[in-house]
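Troubleshooting: if your tokenizer reports a length mismatch, compare against these two reference records.
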Amino acid sequence: MQLATHSPWSHCGILYQKDGQWQVFEAVQPVKLTFLTDWVARGQDGHFVIKRLRDAETALTPAALARLKAAGRPMLGHGYDLYFGWSDERIYCSELIWKVYERGLGRRIGELQQLRDFDLSHPAVQAKLRERYGNNLPLAETVISPVSIFNSPELVTVLDR
């Protein structure tokens, strides 16, 4: 997806503190909680960015955090969605974030797009699309990219390491 979105960001998750440990709720195979240290170790050169809601001090009350976790709980254990479909049957990373915040708090993090909105011209992108969809590209499929989440005006950067 990085080639199609012209972004260095390829993965994202939601950071939770559970039992005194920082964990990332992420859509990999399957959707799961991963210790932050393990999540960072999988990244490129240990670089990661943490963002929060711009109004986190007032918006992220204990009740709001409970609603976020409750919104994500039904997706826990679901398979990773290589096809970037918008159903809840399978989930990809930025879709997980968007749906958790929208369902838990009624907040939309990032802008929804359609597959046709991305740059699909790169040969590697075209090859991956042919591999996944054959000749039936779902160009009208609703999608959300990691860069759309990253650039959301709803979020502010609190750590860039």
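Reference record two:
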Amino acid sequence: MRSSLATRPFSSLLGRLPSQCAVCRAWPSQPVCDACVARFAPPTPRCARCALPLPAGVTHCGECVRHPPPLDACLAACAYAWPWPGHIGEFKFQGQTGWARPFATLMRSAPWVEPALEACDLLLPMPLSTARLRERGFNQALALARRLAPRKTDATLLLRTRDTTAQSGLTRAERLRNLRGAFALEPLRAAEIEGRRIVLLDDVMTSGASLFAAAAVLRAAGAAHITGLVLARTDPPH
């Protein structure tokens, strides 16, 4: 009889077999060792509504004070900075789905993530367009959600209704306009959102336009509380 390990894609074994840390090359280790998580994903003061880094003691950035987004809270596990972009690219664009496990562990280690997952009724991964899903072969946000809270994950309630042009190079206002009407709820299930606590999950947050557009749909359907949760948040240049 063949070993069950031999029948699995190699990428699915990442996080199960002894290996080097992908960052510091320590051996034996998890794919990312605890020391590297502590060094490269330390707890960081961030805006409570959009997760931008802030000075200690400040809870909201100026933009969220002036124009509050439809998120009640936003949590980011790490900054989109070395060593994470390369490994996120392997996960997202090269089909190395085994990264879902260590990335989910990294997210769970961030402050307030565990309480948010425990308190929510539904964990909704950000949906991909049909063309993008066909191109990648999987939805990276769904892969993370299934590692974080499989029983609360629902991949069919929030829908991507159309593809959009590239967001790069657009202003915040242009990004929001570009995403208008890009998300919707499954019509026969829209009533399930009313009064529920939702965690909306994505892998990388740049301007927040995509998360905000999806959250606005959930808010309009009567969601009681919406938390954005991302693996990495791009930070403004210093």
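Descriptive notes for reference record two:
- Residues 23 and 36 are 7 Å apart (CA to CA).
- The first strand starts at residue 73 and ends at 79.
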